[in-house]
Write a structure and sequence with these properties.
single chain, alpha+beta, Beta Polymerase, domain 2, Hydrophobic Seed Protein, 7-stranded mixed sheet, two-stranded antiparallel sheet, 13 strands, 52% helix, NT_sf, CC tRNA cytidylyltransferase activity, RNA-binding, nucleotide binding
């Protein structure tokens, strides 16, 4: 692979300015763009985040002076932020961050790292080789020398590994992963993103129990969640397959309970088979990882909480919206009836908050039905279920329900109170639910027809039924305590 990369107009201007400034310093400072940007440029991929490795310790001091220099050229930049190497390090190793010509730039001194019991290293200034060796993979250890305009490969295999699609660590893999177990997840992420073959000795190192178990003990849940999220953005099935093959699922997707994990890869295999025919997104891939926890609960503040939600919220520290989206999928499965033909039955299922978006819930319902009899390969049973849900989707669309479920009711609350001479109460909500069903079953119904139906129901048997349904449920003595 070539040692030169083609810069665009903005990158060329940035490199020229950086080179000119660094040469003016006394003594001159060697500047190298490191890691992901170099890899992406060699792969002809867009990249706007630049890590500039310097031959001096303080990236922050350098960035401040560089920004002052750019001001003399009438170039507007962002303010310079400051990031410490870690809370215990001295200020001379601080990183400087800023935005220049639309590029996100981090300036940091070349460094070496040593680890004790934590994944937070002791950092000191280092050589380019030491800096390259501390990185997760050889393909991420390449440098672009701003002065020579050439790619430097201090590990002596980064370029060949990138060309041959190989994932390998710069140092012996056991050392690399023990120093920082997060690198295991990064290895999986890059292998799935760039379709890399993880070298056998790297795979074997990851499989060692003390190596993989360190993910849960040395890496923060937030960092695990970030890596998992990034895995889902490129080739999620490959990522989930690697997690399964390496025996990592119990160490990545953690909870108070530890069920058998085979349903995770099974549901991922099914989702992959459905992906060309059904709606699929990142939430669904995340749900495959949570499948082993389906129907399990754990105690939180004395209450039963779905274990799947704990995996997402506590095990990965992902957002509340993400947790709810995954948890809702398992709830939506419990109320779906793919054989339904009545318009209001299908429509009210689609309107249920735990079902939205209905396309996602429909896909997941198919997955969960197939997984019950999954043999490891797509068979007649799986195809029969898939066709059933395709027909269900077709029925939904033929009935015009995707648009109908979001239409406002023909009568609002004020109009209902006036028509039936009632005051605001739980009864009003029960009537609105009945009106919603009528409206779904009468897509061409007019407001006037709706009023006639409501009056007839109110003056007939409907009123008693509605009043009964609007009454609060009585709690049997002792029931509240059991809950």
């Amino acid at each position: 692979m070539a040692r030169k990369v083609a810069l665009n107009e903005v990158e060329t201007r940035f490199v020229n300015l950086l080179d000119d400034f660094s040469r003016r310093l006394n003594p001159p400072v060697e500047c190298r763009i490191a890691g992901g940007w170099v890899r992406d440029k060699l792969l002809s991929l867009p990249s706007h985040d630049l890590d500039i490795a310097l031959s001096i310790p303080s990236g922050h001091a350098f960035a401040v002076e560089f920004v002052d220099y750019l001001k003399t050229k009438d170039i507007t930049t962002g303010s310079v932020g400051k990031v410490a190497a870690n809370p215990e390090q001295s200020k001379h190793l601080e990183t400087g961050t800023t935005r220049i010509l639309g590029l996100e730039c981090d300036f940091v001194g070349l460094r070496s790292e040593t680890y004790a019991d934590s994944r937070i290293p002791q950092v000191k200034p280092g050589t380019p080789l030491e800096d390259a060796s501390r990185r997760d993979l050889t393909i991420n250890a390449l440098f672009y020398n701003v002065s020579t305009r050439e790619v430097e490969d201090f590990t002596e295999r980064g370029l060949s590994d990138l060309e041959n699609k190989i994932a390998c660590t710069p140092l012996p893999p056991r050392q690399t992963f023990q120093d920082d177990p997060l690198r295991i997840l990064r290895c999986i992420r890059f292998a799935s993103r760039f379709n890399l073959k993880i070298e056998d000795h790297v795979m074997e190192a990851i499989k060692e129990e003390d190596v993989k178990s360190a993910i849960a003990t040395k890496v923060s849940k937030e960092r695990i969640g970030i890596e998992v999220n990034k895995m889902l953005q490129h080739d999620p099935f490959r990522a989930m397959s690697l997690i399964n093959d390496l025996g990592l699922h119990p160490h990545v997707f953690t909870c108070d309970v530890n069920p058998p994990r085979q349903d995770a890869i099974a549901s991922a295999q099914i989702l992959l088979n459905l992906s060309q025919r059904f709606y699929v997104d990142e939430i669904l891939w995340l749900a495959t990882a949570a499948t082993p926890f389906n129907d399990l609960v754990v105690k939180r503040k004395g209450k039963d909480v779905p274990a799947a939600s704990i995996v997402i919220s506590e095990g990965l520290k992902l957002s509340t919206d993400t947790k709810n989206s995954v948890t809702n999928l398992f709830e939506a499965v419990k109320i779906v009836n793919p054989d339904a033909t009545v318009r209001s039955e299908i429509g009210t299922w689609m309107q249920n908050p735990c079902v939205k978006p209905w396309q996602r819930s429909l896909t997941w319902s198919a997955v969960m039905e197939i997984v019950l009899r999954w043999t490891g390969q797509w068979d007649d049973n799986a195809e029969e279920v898939a066709k059933k849900y395709e027909e269900f989707r077709g029925r939904i669309e033929e009935l015009g329900l995707p648009d109908a479920i979001d239409k406002p009711l023909l009568l609002n609350g004020t109009e209902l109170q006036k028509l039936l001479s009632i005051s605001p109460s739980p009864l009003l909500q029960t009537i609105r639910q009945a009106l919603n069903i009528w409206q779904l079953d009468h897509p061409q119904g007019t407001k006037e027809e709706c009023e006639v139906w409501l009056k007839e129901m109110w003056e007939g048997q409907g009123r008693a039924e509605w009043e009964k349904n609007s009454q609060p449920k009585k709690i049997v003595k002792g029931e509240k305590r059991k809950r």
